[in-house]
Design brief:
Its cofactor is Mn(2+). With 478 residues, this protein is an alpha+beta fold. The chain has 17 helices and 19 strands.
């Protein structure tokens, strides 16, 4: 059960939990009054969890839950915590089991009138071509050697083996590769990766064909190559069994190695390893390897989408707008108390949202800021934003990763009918395909928060500025 946490409103959409007890820094929540009230519901411990995270050694400035935040394992989904890169810790719960779950957006070069009469068959073809579900196989045939190469080189391996273009890499966070240690990935995780290169998995993951309906910032939209009535494809998937098995393995290892540290925490699920310890280095090498697998996975799904569009529309030039990572801990430079400092920024269900000028932003977008994608639900619209001018100061360069859940999967499955959902969505011109009735009802639009409100807060705070809005045309659920 959630506890009522005392919040102080610092300014509109900014709430703070004062430092008390074991907290080393304050904790913050960004959101409208209604969104933050949702984080205080009896079955949501998001605010308690972000308060607990403020006790992590080396944590700087404040811990933060974003407008889409909700309870997760030990640390809220939609949470951010930055620790000193020398004296801090690495905390798997603040990263998440699905390492580098993320979103990619593709330009198709088509307009709405080109696809409107083909929506149903488009949904069918995507569903038939892209493996979905927990153990559905992968679009790219791979063996153990291939998976090792992917864990080492990410999108570089995909490019070298004919599955990616150089432009794909240039429009991906970190160019789709982090320095990694494949040998640190558990053997069982490695094996699971063999059949999952190019697969959606289950749960919230999807491939969705969308129509751009509104453009709010002409200059930035033009830089992203987006215009009204353009058709785009949004891909949401992660590191599949590789990431989950890796995270689970190291949480257990940390619990064994650092039992005394865990016992001193306000929540033992926040078990951590001090940076510089061998086990911390081993986990970070394995985490980066799983992140490389996730980028390769989204690239393989991109290849599948390109195949479908080529067959149906002769459109072979689908281009990557950008690919963002949600669950990761990365070293970055940020200002703390007026001085630049190297931090290990943990983001769980949070998008990096760097503003214009940061060198990490691809050259094509450096003048306008990093693309940020916030999916709504299969029955609502999604948004494209750009990293906002206040993001570095307010959120360590972070923004929400979507609407965020307001109902658990169990609740949603018990409240909604798959048949009624499909009928209601079809009446609105949305063609949905799912591997099962349960996969559909768990992801019912009513299970999610109001994406308009999440985006409004992000824009008002200057952490993510609105660029364009899209609506779904065809959706394939994992």
């Amino acid at each position: 059960m959630g506890l009522v946490v005392e919040l102080n409103e610092l300014e509109p959409n900014v709430y703070e939990i004062e430092r008390t007890g074991k907290m080393r820094v304050p904790a913050r929540a960004y959101g409208s009054e209604s969104l933050v009230e949702g984080m205080q519901e009896p079955d949501d411990r998001a605010l308690t969890q972000i308060q607990n995270a403020a006790a992590l050694p080396g944590v700087e400035k404040f811990t933060l839950v974003l407008p889409d935040g909700h309870q997760g394992y030990g640390f809220p989904v939609g949470g951010v915590a930055a620790v000193d890169a020398d004296d801090g810790v690495v905390c798997p719960a603040a990263i998440g089991y699905d390492i580098n779950c993320g979103v990619r957006l593709l330009r198709t070069g088509l307009s709405y009138k080109d696809v409107v009469s083909e929506q149903s068959i488009l949904a069918d073809r995507l569903n038939q071509t892209i493996p979905t579900g927990p153990v559905a196989g992968g679009y790219v045939d791979a063996d153990i050697s291939d998976v090792r190469g992917i864990l080492e080189d990410g999108l570089e391996w995909m490019h070298s083996n004919g599955h990616a273009t150089r432009a794909d890499l240039d429009h991906c966070e970190e160019h789709g590769r982090l320095p990694s240690d494949p040998n640190a990935v558990p053997t069982e995780a490695l094996k699971r990766g063999v059949s999952q290169v190019g697969s959606l998995g289950a749960g919230t993951h999807f491939v969705e064909v969308q129509r751009v309906t509104d453009v709010y910032d002409d200059e930035t939209a033009a830089a992203f190559g987006l215009g009204t009535d353009d058709v785009v494809v949004m891909i949401h998937s992660g590191s599949r069994g590789v990431g989950h098995q890796t995270c689970a393995h190291y949480i257990r290892a940390f619990e064994r190695e650092y039992q005394s540290l865990s016992a001193s925490l306000p929540d033992e699920q926040l078990v951590y390893a001090p940076l510089g310890d061998d086990l911390a280095d081993e986990f970070r090498g394995a985490m980066n390897a799983a992140a490389n697998f996730a980028w390769a996975n989204r690239q393989a799904i991109t290849e599948a989408v390109r195949e479908v569009f080529d067959v149906l529309f002769g459109a072979t030039g689908l281009e990557v707008v950008y690919d963002v990572c949600h669950n990761i801990a990365k070293e970055e430079r940020h200002a703390v108390n007026g001085e630049m400092q190297t931090l290990l920024v943990h983001r769980k269900g949070a998008t990096r949202a760097f503003p214009a000028g940061r060198p990490e932003v691809p050259e094509a977008y450096r003048a306008v800021g990093q693309p940020v994608f916030m999916p709504g639900s299969m029955g609502s619209h999604s948004y494209v934003l750009a990293g906002g001018p206040e993001s570095l100061e307010r959120s360590f360069g972070s923004a929400a990763h979507g609407a965020g859940r307001r109902k658990s999967r169990t609740e949603a499955a018990s409240e909604y009918s798959a048949g009624e959902l499909k009928k209601a969505l079809r009446a609105r011109g949305i063609f949905v395909r799912a591997r099962s009735a349960e996969a559909l009802t768990e992801e019912a639009p009513g299970a999610y928060k109001d994406i308009d409100e999440v985006v409004r807060v992000s824009d008002a705070l200057g952490i993510g500025t609105k660029v364009a809005r899209t609506v779904p045309l065809a959706n394939v659920k994992g």
